[in-house]
Amino acid sequence: MFNKVVEDSLNEAKAARAELSKHPAIFVGEKGKNDGGLYLSNYANCLLNRQIDIFDDSILLLENDRVASACTISRGMIETYSFAKLLADKISKILTNSEGPESVEKALDVLMGFTNSSRYKQTEQKKLDKGIIKLGDIYRTEQAKYRMENMLASSEHVMNALRALYKEEMQHTKEKESQFEITYDALSEWVHPSQTSIFHNYVPETHLIPTSMGKLHFHDGAKAGCVRALHFITDSINIYNWTIALANEMTKRGRKDS
Hints:
two-stranded antiparallel sheet; single chain; mainly alpha
């Protein structure tokens, strides 16, 4: 029964994936000067492409019984899906609550925070500020130097996106605990060195686990977690289409102004 539920869920996810295709992404630059929506549609393409890659690579690993690696990669599906969803939600609220060119500028400001999100660069800025490193230590473009000197690097922490996802789920289910969070945390045990990823994974005597449904193999439970994460792809196209509609609205408002 357990494996049948997992298999059905995986088949749903595979069917959704079959309907998706990657979209080309570009360096917008001057092309977006009079088309703010192009920045958003381009980033939406990148987000969808990443979800497709995560799905395909995870399936490849699962089908070759590389469960530990599949768990490590499939966790990224929850992160990327929630990241895309949070971005669309923030842009939507801006466009709903403000009008004209001002709304486009506000939306672009939020979008740039997501696009340029880099904890690494943010950490480098702090090192520069403390005198630990100097701008001339490694080669940087003039734009990169300017951003470093003016502390412009940002980091949209993925936990913000995950918390928003968990909160929305619990509002819908009326439960006190998020099943999405449970799945994410379980997969995180595989991502990091832990009892799960090291001891249990490599000690066969620990693999049969007593449950209310009888004995469950350790790796079957892990595969189920992967599938729950990969199942988010069934909604990826909805988030993508929503984001593209928001991008079109940004473009329209910008053209009215010009």
